[in-house]
Specification:
- Helices cover about 35% and strands about 25% of the residues.
- The chain is α/β, with parallel strands linked by helices and about 400 residues long.
- It has 2 domains: about 10-180, Rossmann fold, CATH 3.40.50.1950; about 190-404, CoaB-like (Rossmann fold), CATH 3.40.50.
- The strands form 5 sheets. An 8-stranded mixed beta sheet has the order 12-11-8-13-16-17-18-19, sandwiched between helices. It has a 5-stranded parallel beta sheet with strand order 2-1-3-4-5, sandwiched between helices. Strands 6-7 form a two-stranded antiparallel ribbon.
- A hairpin with a 5-residue loop joins strand 6 and strand 7 (about 160-165).
- Helix 1 packs parallel to helix 3 (about 50-55).
- It is elongated and about 85 Å long.
- The structure holds cytidine-5'-triphosphate.
């Protein structure tokens, strides 16, 4: 079963008897880990209530373009940007016609116009309507614009007729949607990713660390797995769950991360250092908790940690190695210097001074820098960004024996 973990699916429900099956579809998308938001057309609300979809999706249902309360919570443009994919199921003949014409006369058509994410339809209608020349012409126009169409199935219909026009079963739709996320660009490849902060122990209760949440490294691990790679995630302490199909190696300190990285990196094709590694550790670990006693000052002597990504990049016959550069000034200059100093193939630079992006946030914008170019990606969600990055990074890999 393909996964939809952390995928943001916007489900459009239009007017048709098959709308009752969309309730089950929401459940199945959620089961695979998707975050689902439902948009209902006016006609859909004749068949089902928004409350049903709200209860199943765990999110408020969007119905009107001009509803100030809904717009204040998440405006329609924000919603269009939020979605990784839009699936309209059931898609009625009327909806397909409006979409083919490029109309934006309700919330769902407006979202379909505004989004840059892929759009899929699961048509459902009477077999005569489906086979009508007008509907077939609309279908062709939509497919030419890159809209993917699931189904319809053939069989007996609610109206008593038999023929094509049945909405595909929810389980099939969930699988078809999940399969669209699988690119196979990294199939047969081994990828090792470091993520999260490290903790450098001072005594049994204290440590030095940083604010890294690990979200970017985890999103990369997920995107690499989705692209077919065998992924090892070497993770410092985070609160994040292990992504599906990813092997996680838990470490605490930079030196543990260094050791785990070197032992896994030699056999991998791509190494991505997304961890925010502490640069120093206390020179001495105190076996007992330090009592503050009378002293007003405490001086710690710190010793430099090994540079993990540089060590991996220096391995003879080692993997294609990618680092991150989190900078608060002179982004391009500092990142390029890091690329050279650490001997990397590419470096993902992000400006940590930008509000609402980067460290500990859900969104990020980066520049992928190598010796030939600087490619700007984002701002977008870390999940979307991870996918875009994995797409770019997979181009760095030399062709494998199985490619030729
Ligand atoms: N990195 C690493 N091991 C370290 C320090 C950093 O592998 N001991 C990796 C990070 O995972 C990241 C890249 O190096 O991919 C850059 O990290 P950053 O902390 O920005 O760079 P530093 O080497 O610490 O340089 P500076 O302190 O000058 O910013």
């Amino acid at each position: 079963m393909s996964s939809l973990t952390n995928k943001r699916i916007l489900l459009g429900v239009t007017g048709g008897i098959a709308a009752y099956k969309s309730a089950d579809l929401v459940r199945r998308l959620k089961e695979r880990g998707a975050d689902v938001r439902v948009v209902m057309t006016e006609a859909a609300r004749e068949f089902m209530t928004p409350l049903t979809f709200q209860a199943l999706s765990g999110n408020p249902v969007h119905t009107d373009l001009l509803d100030p309360a809904a717009e204040a919570a998440m405006g329609h443009i924000e919603l269009a940007r939020w979605a990784d994919r839009i699936l309209v199921a059931p898609a009625s003949a009327n909806f397909m016609a409006r979409l083919a014409e490029g109309r934006g006369d309700d919330l769902l058509t407006t979202l379909c116009l505004a989004t840059r994410s892929p759009l899929s339809l699961a048509p459902a209608m009477n077999q005569g309507m489906w086979q009508n020349e007008a509907t077939q012409a609309n279908l062709l126009r939509l497919q030419e614009r890159g809209v993917s169409v699931f189904g319809p199935g053939d069989g007996s219909q609610a109206c008593g007729e038999v023929g094509p026009g049945r909405m595909l079963e929810p389980a099939m739709l969930a699988e078809a949607l999940a399969a669209q996320f699988e690119s196979g660009r990294l199939s047969g490849r081994k990828v090792v990713i470091t993520a999260g902060p490290t903790r450098e122990a001072i005594d049994p209760v204290r440590y030095l660390s940083n604010h890294s949440s690990g979200k970017m490294g985890y999103a990369l691990a997920e995107a690499a797995a989705e692209a077919g790679a065998q992924v090892t995630l070497i993770s410092g302490p985070t609160h994040l769950p292990r992504p599906d199909r990813v092997q996680r190696v838990d470490v605490t300190s930079a030196r543990e991360m260094h050791e785990a990285s070197l032992s896994h990196a030699a056999q991998c094709d791509l190494f991505i250092a997304a961890a925010a590694v502490a640069d120093y550790h206390p020179a001495e670990y105190l076996e007992q908790k330090l009592k503050k006693g009378d002293s007003d000052q405490w001086q710690l002597t710190l010793v430099k940690n090994p540079d993990i990504v540089a060590a991996v990049a220096a391995l003879a016959g080692g993997p294609t190695t990618i680092g991150f550069a989190a900078e608060s000034e002179n982004l391009l200059e500092f990142a390029r210097a890091k690329l050279e100093r650490k001997g990397l193939r590419g470096i993902i630079a992000n400006d940590i001074s930008r509000e609402g992006l980067g460290f500990n946030s859900d969104d990020n914008a980066v520049i992928l820098i190598d010796r030939e170019r600087a490619l700007e990606l984002g701002p977008m969600s870390k999940t979307q960004l991870a996918r875009a990055l994995i797409h770019e990074l997979s181009d760095y890999l030399p062709a494998s024996a199985s490619d030729s």
